[in-house]
Amino acid sequence: MSLDALKAALPEYAKDLKLNLGSVIGNNDKLSQQQLWGTVLATAIASRSAIVLRELEPEAKANLTPEAYTAAKAAAAVMAMNNVFYRTRHLLSDPEYGTLRAGLRMNVIGNPGVEKVDFELWSLAVSAVNGCGQCLDSHEQVLRKAGIERDVIQESFKIAAVVQAVGATLDAEAVLAQ
């Protein structure tokens, strides 16, 4: 499978997802190729859907430099940790947790091996999949300070939304077919 095969695998009731998958990935003119495919790879990992990751990873790898490929995977990894940690601190009713030192290593954020803006877009998209408002705000602010327009930022979380939905739909269909 590939992007086209994923679209073909979607059931008729998910026609909107099929169309959206084609537009956010196949016809995206707001993101650079590196931003686009890094976002696709990072959100495919974050979606936790083996089907989506297996089908989108080869295209992402083919469209990314080895450094960008590794950085997109690193964004998914570090944000998987950070999203749980910061979302939990935010959700706890005791504000004192917010004053404590995190004590978690996240060096890759400071030195991702690619343009900082690209890594921030990927981190924001993964945070959207994982539902961490504090991380979303943090990455959005960094991107806005770097001069990135809202429509570009929105593209990253549109990709996140569609990739997540495609994964949920195809995973459910696989279970229902058993």
TrEMBL record:
Source organism superkingdom: Bacteria
Catalytic reaction list: N(6)-[(R)-dihydrolipoyl]-L-lysyl-[lipoyl-carrier protein] + a hydroperoxide = N(6)-[(R)-lipoyl]-L-lysyl-[lipoyl-carrier protein] + an alcohol + H2O
Start and end residues of each Carboxymuconolactone decarboxylase-like domain: 95-177
Annotated Gene3D superfamilies: AhpD-like
Keyword field: Antioxidant, Disulfide bond, Oxidoreductase, Peroxidase, Redox-active center
Alphabetical list of InterPro entries matching this protein: AhpD, AhpD-like, AhpD_core, CMD-like
Record: active site: 132 (proton donor), 135 (cysteine sulfenic acid (-soh) intermediate)
Disulfide bonds: 132-135
Broad EC category: oxidoreductase
This enzyme's EC code(s): 1.11.1.28
GO BP terms in the entry: cell redox homeostasis; response to oxidative stress
GO MF annotation: an example: hydroperoxide reductase activity
Subunit structure: Homotrimer.
Family label: Belongs to the AhpD family.
NCBIfam families in UniProt: ahpD, ahpD_dom
Functional description taken from the UniProt entry: Antioxidant protein with alkyl hydroperoxidase activity. Required for the reduction of the AhpC active site cysteine residues and for the regeneration of the AhpC enzyme activity.
Name assigned to this protein: Alkyl hydroperoxide reductase AhpD
